[in-house]
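Sequence of Parvalbumin (Cebus imitator).
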Amino acid sequence: MSMTDLLNAEDIKKAVGAFSAADSFDHKKFFQMVGLKKKSADDVKKVFHILDKDKSGFIEEDELGFILKGFSPDARDLSAKETKMLMAAGDKDGDGKIGVDGG
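Predicted 3D structure, token representation.
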């Protein structure tokens, strides 16, 4: 399954383009722009599993830096600052990784 099986390719392109500048990434706006906020919990889990490159059941900080590439292969990497901010927002239990159920 690919990201475009779940999300509109044009929405992905617009969202990735909107945050192409370094240190401009805003996860809430990005996820809204790609249409993730309108998806069912099941579809959100499918997106999570696409982004979980090592299939560990978690998105670790090293995977998080490449999250935009999970939506579009030619997207940029997140900066260290952006990665830490996204981890802080998603890591509800403070274990340094984001689980499929947000923790």
